[in-house]
Amino acid sequence: MENFRKVRSEEAPAGGGAEGGGPGSGPFADLAPGAVHMRVKEGSKIRNLMAFATASMAQPATRAIVFSGCGR
């Protein structure tokens, strides 16, 4: 641990939460309130992503899922 140092710390603003599709929570400012934003990274497994997406769509409040990715 002596080779690591903390560069920056960010906290989500209280109220609303960063996940869940509120205004400004995803890559688009005009997302519907029922949209779920999923950030996909290089090591993500399709099996895990699809399980989470399927479970999210089973909830009546979820209207859409937005995937955004980074990496190769």
Automatic annotation (TrEMBL):
<feature type="compositionally biased region" description="Basic and acidic residues">
    <location>
        <begin position="1"/>
        <end position="11"/>
    </location>
</feature>
<feature type="region of interest" description="Disordered">
    <location>
        <begin position="1"/>
        <end position="30"/>
    </location>
</feature>
<protein>
    <submittedName>
        <fullName>Ribonuclease P protein subunit p25</fullName>
    </submittedName>
</protein>
<feature type="compositionally biased region" description="Gly residues">
    <location>
        <begin position="14"/>
        <end position="25"/>
    </location>
</feature>
